[in-house]
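Input/output pair, single chain:
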Amino acid sequence: MRFLMETTRLGLGNLRRHKLRSTLTSLGIILGVAAVIVVVAIGEGNKRAALRDIQALGATNIILRSAKPPEANSSGGSRSFLVAYGLKFQDLRRVTGSVPDARFIVPLKAVGSEMSYGAIRTLSQAFGTTPDLQDAARLRIARGRYITDTDVEGREPVCVLGSEVAKQFFKLVEPVGQSIRIDQQVFRIVGVLEPIGLAGGAGSALVGRDLNKDVHLPITTAERAFGNTIVRRQSGSFSGEEIELSEIYVTMNDTEEVVVASGRLTRLLDVGHPKLADVQVIVPWELLENAKKALLVWNIMLVAIAAISLLVGGIGIMNIMLASVTERTKEIGIRRALGATRKHIVMQFLVETGSLSALGGLIGIGLGIGVSVGLESLLPWVQRLPLLRGAFDGKVTLSPEITWWSIVASFLVSAGVGLVFGIYPAIVASRKDPIVALRHT
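Output:
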């Protein structure tokens, strides 16, 4: 124990005598550890955000969606045409009969898109649906209530607003009880939804719209008020789309049933829609699993790139310690002449390299945590810099999540790198002939 304490004292004393050299030597380790922590924090934050967005669609949901076939985008030279495609009420009945163990089967019918309240107008999207959508899509009510079975049975002219629509129309007025127009049809507001965290995220991209701008109506009311045909007039011509249902949400009881049910539904829809030309089958659970795998590979790649800094730092330590061996040759000769063994010399140099790498690792941990914490608030300032103002999308955000394993792993690796790269200089020093070392000037 006394030998170890004495060796440690000598090693640390030598580091203190060369403070600048010690700092520069450990700089590679400091930056390497900080880089690992920051990179992992950014990757983990992005992963959690993406998974939250996808999971918000419902891991037990299967989404069947109408999709306009490519050939329908061309009118063939006609100034007026009508295209019929997508899901039908007949498909809804077939789906209901094919998946009797489903928890919910919810149809959505896209109808009007021009919203107005007084002089305020906006483009949004109204959907006719059933009360089960609230549970299937995990919608939460901020004010009022959601659509009820009574509304559906009575074809009531009521609606529930998304949070963005309510914010745009009713900044200073209580929305519940007010009336809005949807394509000239008047509807009374009975509820407002809480914000759905998909705007601009991965989930929003999957859905193809900002869910906070949706307006929900009873499906029977939507069918009676708007029918199945959407007509667009422009430049002396008109085009029409006949779509009975835009989406069908199928909610299973657990994720194990999702894959089996999605395969069954794909085969079912292929009968009425060959090669699924005008419908899509979206399985958020599969997207969730694929996203996890892709993000894991991405994180491994980022950590590997950051770990190169640790390797460079270790090489730097070895180079400096080899130079130190040459510089301290006479000191090594004196210690050997006074009775120090090769083991003592090796231990002294290992203490120095281990201390350098461990101290560098601790400083790197502090730097990495500090950068990760401040990155979210620093990014807007960076985006406003004159040279970088046009290089970023205004919606770019970062939410780093610091992980304990990245801190522990980076510190252990940094300490290990210092010891591994310090062994060779230590062995070189211990093998010097004491007589030759004493003659060195």
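Residues 60-283 form one domain. Confidence is low (pLDDT under 50) at residues 198-206.
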